Amino acid sequence: MAYFSLETAMRAADIGTSRVIQLNESSTINEAARTMRQHDVGCVVTMKNTLAGVLPSGIVTDRDLAIRFLAKDLGDEKNLHDIQSLPLVTCHADATIDELVGMMLGSHVRRVPIVDDEGQLIGIVCLDDVMAALAELMQRASRALTDERELD
Description:
Blueprint: H1 6-9, H2 12-15, E1 22-24, H3 29-39, E2 43-50, E3 53-61, H4 62-70, H5 80-83, E4 91-92, H6 97-107, E5 111-115, E6 121-126, H7 127-151
Parallel strand pairs: 1-2, 4-5
Antiparallel strand pairs: 2-3, 5-6
Helix pairs in contact: 6-7
């Protein structure tokens, strides 16, 4: 009998990307909008200098720009620190797909930065990545069941 486990199926590092667009949290909101457009992404991870190095401090999404900035007419002088989503929800590279789903649902977020043991940013996983991975897992499960039936 083929064994299929969601626990060991896929990890954050397997389904996320190491390509993360970052800006210092003191960057302007206009810089963030230009950067998102230039790189065709829906978010930037905000970074800040700490004693442990440059670490992720928050996340700013295209939705944040629309709702927290444009809708409130905050003005061009505001920086990312003023609108970033906090607290920042992060995961480790070995987080399982079910842990990611739990984090996203529990925290009402669609993007989760991946960090190493020192808190350094190493990637990001978004809801679309999780959905694609779940679809792949369903295909694997279906194939495993089909193969099992053919053996019977």
